[in-house]
Design brief:
With 272 residues, the protein is an alpha+beta fold. It has 5 helices and 16 strands. The strands form 5 sheets. Strands 1, 2, 4 and 5 form a 4-stranded antiparallel β-sheet that branches. A 4-stranded mixed β-sheet has the order 9-14-15-16. The protein has a 3-stranded antiparallel β-sheet with strand order 3-12-11, with no helix packed on it. Bound molecules: 2-amino-4-trifluoromethylsulfanyl-butyric acid and cobalt (II) ion (2 copies). The site of one cobalt (II) ion has 5 residues, from loops.
Length: 272
């Protein structure tokens, strides 16, 4: 069963979400050819600590770093390393989760490195960005989780892409990964009912073709089986009276506008 949050809890979830978003924005400004993913990790650690929070991934089930950095054909959970240097034309997903005053905020974006990304990388970048908007746009109190997966899968597969099955969105709160699981594929009107007080992530991973992954020997890094590129965007949401708050949206984030165009009932976190 999903843990429903009180309005007091949601105040704290907003703070955690906003700090995760600000951390991600700060890291995005550092993305350039020549920087190592280790340097991004160090910058994240310092920023999060300086803001009175803890990077949730660090030591989570043995994960050794503060953020996940997933380049090109890495789907998710890439481990930052000083041996990994961003190259012109790469795409990189940076996934930030913070724990602030006991609550988690979880968000990720894919960034283009430089301005010469090849078409197959630009394709998954664009489809992943539209996928998260389509998924969020169908969320409403009393609808079901399967509606989210269906909206994402039907769109992404029509674009010729693969939707990753083996990694999913999740409830979030005092726990990093709570119930329910949010599948990014599925059938309308199936699964758990969406209720006020729920907080969960939507974080579709979109592959160029085949949806399957291949686990690397480090037991974290998941790559596409066919070497096609993969992209991901993630937000933490709260279902509140009157609509959906995107807790990890910052003023100016294009996600809000796009979800509204698609008919979604989304709102800025209240204090923005
Ligand atoms: N932030 C990831 C998510 O969206 C989880 C990372 S788990 C870690 O759920 F251990 F790899 F950090
Ligand atoms: Co997540
Ligand atoms: Co995440």
């Amino acid at each position: 069963m999903a843990k429903l949050k009180s309005s007091q809890d949601i105040l704290l979830m907003r703070d955690a979400g906003q700090l995760a978003a600000k951390t991600l924005q700060y890291l995005g400004e550092l993305v350039k050819p020549g920087i190592s993913t280790e340097a991004l990790d160090k910058a994240a650690y310092e920023y999060i600590k300086d803001h009175g929070a803890i990077p949730s991934p660090l030591n989570y089930r043995g994960f050794p770093k503060s953020i996940c950095t997933s380049i090109n054909d890495v789907i998710c959970h890439g481990i930052p390393s000083d041996k990994e240097i961003l190259q012109e034309g790469d795409i990189i997903n940076i996934d930030v989760t913070v724990t602030l005053k006991e609550f988690h905020g979880d968000t990720s974006k894919t960034y283009l490195v430089g301005n010469t990304c090849p078409p197959d990388r630009l394709k998954v970048y664009n489809v992943a960005q539209e996928s998260i908007a389509r998924g969020i746009a169908v969320i409403e109190h009393a609808k079901r989780i399967g509606d989210i997966g269906y909206a994402i899968q039907s769109y992404a597969e029509a674009e010729g892409c693969g939707v990753v099955r083996d990694f999913v969105g999740h409830g979030i709160g005092k726990g990093f990964h709570e119930e329910p699981q949010i599948l990014h594929y599925g059938k309308p009107n199936t699964g758990v009912k969406i209720m006020r007080g729920m907080c969960f992530t939507v974080e579709p991973m979109i592959n160029g073709k085949d949806w399957r992954h291949r686990m690397m020997p480090d037991r974290w890094t998941a790559k596409t089986v066919d070497g096609s590129p993969s992209a991901q965007f993630e937000h933490t949401l709260a279902i509140v009276p009157g609509g959906i708050e995107i807790l990890t949206a910052l003023k100016g984030d294009s996600i809000m506008e796009r979800v509204k165009e698609l008919g979604g009932k989304v709102m800025w976190p209240n204090n923005l």
